[in-house]
Amino acid sequence: MIELAKNHLKKVLETCGANRNCEYYPCHFDGQVCLWCYCPFYPCEDYELGEYIERKDGSKIWSCSKCFWVHRIDIAVEILKEIFNLTKDKGIDEALELLNDHELMLKIKDKVKEKYPVNR
C-alpha cells in the first residue's frame, strides 16, 4: 500500500472505528464507534439520550455523558447515510451550511432514532 493511502486509511480508522489512541477513549463505552466524537445533534435535548446538569456556577448545560446511542456502529453508519443523502449533490461549504441547521439535524436524529430506538 502506498504511503498516502496508508495515512488516509489510518485517519479513516481513527475517525470511524474505536479510536483507542485517543486520550479520552473510551468516553462512553469500550468498543464504541468514534465517528461522532462531537455529536452532530448537540444539544439534542432528548431525555432518552442525555440530561441537563448543573455547572459549578449554577447554570445548566446539556450532558451526553450517558449517551451510548450515537456510538453504536449501526446508528453511526445510518446517521452518516442520512447526511450523505442530503449533501451528495453539494460542495463542502454548501453542505456544511445546510448541516448547520439545527432543526434539520434534529430531524435526522429523529428519523434514525425511529429506525433504531435507544433501547434496542
TrEMBL record:
Domain named Cysteine-rich small: residues: 15-85
Xref: Pfam families: zf-like
Name of this chain's protein: Cysteine-rich small domain protein
